[in-house]
């Protein structure tokens, strides 16, 4: 057993993902308190450069593999590494890949699992996590039982930790020992990248989201303009993604992305619970909706009852004017 | 074999018991909405002749049998409920352990699940079940297909999608993009009453309460209401220009512009 805090660090297109940088900062913060080190379990295209995670907070990094295979195929190597390391906690991003790998570790090693959590701390050698459950109606604090072995596997929501800026240093990299398992049999037989670039909502600090009230793919044009004026990205509700107005990668909510921007602007979004769980931790929520009884009016910070098509273009112009653009 | 979970309805009033567990007896219970997409996907595969039979598996209290009956009313052939007093408060690991043991006995080509449960939202059970059974995982499919002796899912990537394949048997999970779940017809509801449903205890699947360490490796030590949000400021009954000024002032006051 060790006091180290391990984290899953996914690489994509040759660089660590935003989630990897957030968890590096989180693991470093927790490891300082537990008296151990932050150790990255790096995988994905570019992970061979895991030493660079040193600047993000990692003391050491174990390379699971740097190919483009499904993340789950690294499960056997991750399990072998975790078995050797016995860290007090393993942080995993609450993304599809992060959840798959975390789940495999829970099954392979019989570990306690937590999350998705919005806070985690280590107090007197005990990992405690804080989670919103039952559609956010209750906050629960949980910990491993006495029978549980290390590590506690913790799924961490995006933006729970803030990446370090201007950090220096290099993580000592070792390669995971080769391990094989049944997960290796999954392989990508076709890959279909999108023709146009798709924004990564988890990296946006301002999101302008559109819902059913936007009415069409063309209706998203003024939202894109507003997002550009604010320096943000465009997101959507499930209704808008299902209608084919935007790609599914932009969907926010229970079955899409969970986001925590500084500003969320909901246009023509009613605010059903499935959408709400994806954005309710945004720091500032502005909603524009012509229905005065829309549920979003109950939890927005500023709720404007009106027609988004007359308000949004004027708002874009006003923001440009005030910003001197 | 579709694994389903009975959960409290989103709209149901929720109460916690003295030991901080959800009082499942007090809440209106439904099939986890995301599991209904897994049911729909399985029934479509059966209708197209890609799979021979569709069965359902659930772990829960006796009343979870109602969720299985509702699933059978949508279609499919039979159902199995694993219920045992030792399973109260089961966490992701214990749930996966029980489902994996039951699936070892049922031996389906595909164990299919929804992408997450409405109440816990960890999405950990499919991967943990696959690990415990020693079979591949095909997760987050927006479509599941059977191609000969292999299963394939269409899975979203950062900017597009991949087709991921693995030889059966597999554990798979699907999203809400597989197609809207059907409603049970009156005929389906009547037919469901005659479909076979088995009830297994832990002993029936070769597990003991000791194997499950009290059904959880995690415990809730505190449950509380979320912090109250500041009240909503409403702008209503004004023209677009006035609304825009109010919004811009609000953004400026928060240093967002």
Chains forming the largest contact: A-B, 91 and 90 residues
Alpha-beta content class of chain B: alpha/beta
User: What's the main sheet of chain B like?
Assistant: 9 strands, mixed
Structural classification of chain A: alpha/beta
User: Biggest sheet of chain A, in brief?
Assistant: 8 strands, mixed
- Global outline of chain A: globular
Strand order, sheet with most strands of chain B: 9-8-7-10-6-1-4-5-11
Helical content band of chain B: 25-40%
State the order of secondary-structure elements of chain B, H for helix, E for strand: EEEHEHEHEHEEEEHEEEH
Structure description:
- The complex is a heterodimer of chains A (325) and B (257).
- Chain A is α/β, with parallel strands linked by helices and 325 residues long.
- Chain A folds into two domains: 5-185, HUPs (Rossmann fold); 201-323, Rossmann fold.
- Chain A contains seven helices and 17 strands.
- In chain A, the strands form three sheets. In chain A, strands 1, 2, 3, 4, 5, 6, 10 and 11 form an eight-stranded mixed sheet that branches.
- In chain A, strand 8 and strand 9 form a beta hairpin.
- With 257 residues, chain B is α/β, with parallel strands linked by helices.
- Chain B has one domain (2-215): HUPs (Rossmann fold, 3-Layer(aba) Sandwich).
- Chain B is 28% helix and 27% strand.
- Chain B is globular.
- Chain B starts with a strand and ends with a helix.
- The relative contact order of chain B is 0.16.
- The mean pLDDT of chain B is 93.
- The interface between A and B is large, with 91 and 90 residues.
- Strand 9 of chain A pairs antiparallel with strand 12 (218-224) of chain B, so a sheet runs across the interface.
Secondary structure elements and pairings:
The complex is a heterodimer of chains A (325) and B (257).
Chain A: E1 5-12, E2 15-16, H1 18-34, E3 38-43, E4 60-65, H2 75-85, E5 89-93, H3 96-109, E6 113-117, E7 119-123, E8 126-133, E9 138-144, E10 152-156, E11 172-175, E12 187-193, E13 206-210, H4 221-230, E14 233-236, H5 238-242, E15 263-267, H6 273-276, E16 284-289, E17 302-305, H7 308-323
Parallel strand pairs in A: 1-3, 1-5, 3-4, 4-11, 5-10, 6-10, 13-14, 13-15, 15-16, 16-17
Antiparallel strand pairs in A: 1-2, 7-8, 8-9
Chain B: E1 2-4, E2 6-8, E3 29-31, H1 33-47, E4 55-59, H2 64-74, E5 78-82, H3 92-106, E6 110-114, H4 125-133, E7 137-147, E8 150-156, E9 160-167, E10 170-174, H5 186-192, E11 197-200, E12 218-224, E13 233-235, H6 240-253
Parallel strand pairs in B: 1-4, 1-6, 4-5, 5-11, 6-10, 7-10
Antiparallel strand pairs in B: 2-3, 7-8, 8-9
């Amino acid at each position: 057993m060790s006091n180290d805090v391990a984290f899953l660090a996914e690489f994509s297109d040759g660089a660590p993902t935003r989630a990897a940088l957030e968890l590096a900062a989180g693991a470093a913060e927790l490891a300082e308190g537990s008296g151990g080190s932050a150790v990255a379990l790096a995988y994905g295209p570019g992970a061979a450069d895991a030493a660079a995670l040193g600047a993000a907070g990692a003391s050491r990094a174990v390379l699971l593999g740097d190919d483009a295979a499904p993340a789950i195929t690294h499960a056997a190597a991750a399990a072998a590494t975790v078995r050797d390391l016995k860290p007090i906690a393993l942080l995993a991003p609450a993304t599809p890949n992060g959840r798959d790998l975390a789940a495999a570790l829970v099954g392979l090693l019989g570990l306690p699992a937590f999350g998705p959590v919005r806070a985690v701390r280590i107090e007197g050698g005990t990992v405690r996590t804080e989670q919103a459950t039952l559609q956010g109606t209750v906050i629960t604090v949980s910990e491993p039982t006495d029978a549980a072995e290390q590590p506690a596997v913790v799924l961490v929501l995006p933006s729970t930790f803030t990446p370090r800026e201007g950090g220096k240093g290099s993580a000592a990299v070792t390669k995971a020992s080769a391990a094989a398992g049944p997960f290796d049999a999954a392989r990508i037989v076709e890959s279909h990248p999108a023709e146009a670039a798709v924004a990564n909502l988890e990296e946006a600090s301002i999101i302008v989201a559109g819902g059913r009230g936007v009415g069409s793919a063309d209706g998203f044009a003024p939202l894109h303009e507003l997002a550009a004026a604010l320096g943000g990205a465009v997101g959507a509700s499930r209704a808008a993604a299902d209608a084919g107005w935007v790609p599914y990668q932009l969907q926010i909510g229970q079955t899409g992305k969970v986001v925590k921007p500084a500003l969320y602007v909901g246009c023509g979004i009613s605010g059903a619970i499935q959408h709400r769980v994806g954005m309710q931790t945004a720091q500032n929520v502005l909603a524009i909706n012509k229905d005065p009884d829309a549920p979003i009016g109950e939890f927005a910070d500023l709720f404007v009852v009106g027609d988004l098509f007359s308000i949004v273009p004027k708002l874009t112009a006003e923001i440009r004017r005030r910003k001197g653009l | 074999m579709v694994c389903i979970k009975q959960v409290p309805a989103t709209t149901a009033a929720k109460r916690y018991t003295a030991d901080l567990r959800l009082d499942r007896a007090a809440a209106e219970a439904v099939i986890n909405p995301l599991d209904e997409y897994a049911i729909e996907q399985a029934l479509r595969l059966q209708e197209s002749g890609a799979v021979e039979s569709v069965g359902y598996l659930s772990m829960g209290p006796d009343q979870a049998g109602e969720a299985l009956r509702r699933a059978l009313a949508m279609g499919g052939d039979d159902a199995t409920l694993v219920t045992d007093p030792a399973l109260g408060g089961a966490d992701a690991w214990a749930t996966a352990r029980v489902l994996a043991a039951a699936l070892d006995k049922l031996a389906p080509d595909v164990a299919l699940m929804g992408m997450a449960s409405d109440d816990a939202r960890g999405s950990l059970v499919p991967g943990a079940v696959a690990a415990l059974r020693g079979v591949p995982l095909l997760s987050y499919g927006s479509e599941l297909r059977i191609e000969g002796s292999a299963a394939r899912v269409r899975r979203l990537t950062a900017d597009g999608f991949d087709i991921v394949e693995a030889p059966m048997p597999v554990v798979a999970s699907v999203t809400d993009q597989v197609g809207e779940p059907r409603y049970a017809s009156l005929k389906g509801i009547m037919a469901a009453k005659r479909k076979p449903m088995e009830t297994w205890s832990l002993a029936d699947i070769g597990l003991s309460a000791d194997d499950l360490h009290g059904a959880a490796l995690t415990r809730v030590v505190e449950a509380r209401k979320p912090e109250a949000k500041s009240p909503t400021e409403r702008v209503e009954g004004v023209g677009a220009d006035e609304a825009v000024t109010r919004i811009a002032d609000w953004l400026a006051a928060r240093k967002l512009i």
